[in-house]
Amino acid sequence: MEQPTEFVFDIPVGAGVATRANADGPPATPKDAATVILVRDGADGVEIFLQHRVKGMPFAGGMTVFPGGGVDKRDADASVAWAGPEPSWWAARFGCDDALARALTCAAVRETFEESGVLLAGSADAVLTDVTPYATARAALETRAVSLAGFLADAGLTLRADLLRPWAHWITPEQEPRRYDTRFYVAKLPDGQEADGATSEASSSGWQRPDDAIADAREGRRMLMPPTWLTLSELAKFETAEDVLNAPREIVRIAPTLIREDDHVRVVLEKR
User: Which residues form the Nudix hydrolase domain (predicted)?
Assistant: First the structure.
């Protein structure tokens, strides 16, 4: 096995670092999760949809994040009508089995709809432009009253996996009390749809250029976790949303180690 490639990424203290109480005990087992980076073309370049999480939440409270969350066991339901790359394609990119790849992609679509109102679904040959008829279903998904498979079946909708692209794979540092094994997806905002902040998990939401979001973090106006900060740094290099979608990506598992040094956190990233 090749040795991991290590490099260092420095961020100010306060950028989403937590430490578990039982530092000498075994680390928490990471939970599978999916995150979706929504992009669009703005007047001055690529814009990213970001949400400011409610303070006091068990994980990433007060942080600025992309939409996403943990996998629900029902996300693995194979009855979901599906268009686009099959689970086996996603499994090959994300280094997991087909069942988990299906669950992750379903979680990505579900969480994006719950947290931003953007629904990556439609028919086999058309993408939804109006999601207003599904407001009640959105609320039911958020409370887990219905599953994604049940909602899509009742609405006669097809999950559009072709609207997503794989972007990254991050695992929460062992030092943190809550850990997630998260696959990052990227998707362009579908024509006709709007992203909003109508979720109980966010105090505010909006679109912003990557460089502006990073500047806000550097100047103390927002807090970014290392994966968000580094992802925004990558996205700042692109001129259009299509450029982001078409960017070649080699997905490797990034396992950070956090080291406090004075007023900065030294984040050592191991790419495996």
Answer: 30-238
- What span, in angstroms and rounded, lies between the C-alpha atoms of 133 and 152? 13
Asked whether 204 and 51 are in contact (CB, 8 A), the reply is yes
Place of tokens 């973090």: 217
pLDDT in tens, the chain (272 residues): 343 444 455 555 554 455 444 456 688 899 999 999 999 999 999 999 998 865 554 455 567 889 999 999 999 999 999 999 999 999 999 999 999 999 999 999 999 999 999 999 999 999 999 999 999 999 999 999 999 999 999 999 999 999 999 999 999 888 777 889 999 999 999 999 999 976 666 556 899 999 999 998 888 888 888 889 889 999 999 999 999 999 999 998 988 877 766 666 667 776 66
Show the 3-state SS of the chain: CCCCEEEEEEEECCCCCCCCCCCCCCCCCCEEEEEEEEEEEECCEEEEEEEEECCCCCCCCCCEECCEEECCHHHHCCCCCEECCCHHHHHHHHCCCHHHHHHHHHHHHHHHHHHHCCCCEECCCCECCCCHHHHHHHHHHHCCCCCHHHHHHHHCCEEEHHHEEEEEEEECCCCCCCCEEEEEEEEECCCCCCCCCCCCCEEEEEEECHHHHHHHHHCCCCCECHHHHHHHHHHCCCCCHHHHHHCCCCCCEEEEEEEEECCEEEEEEEEC
d(CA 265, CA 85): 38
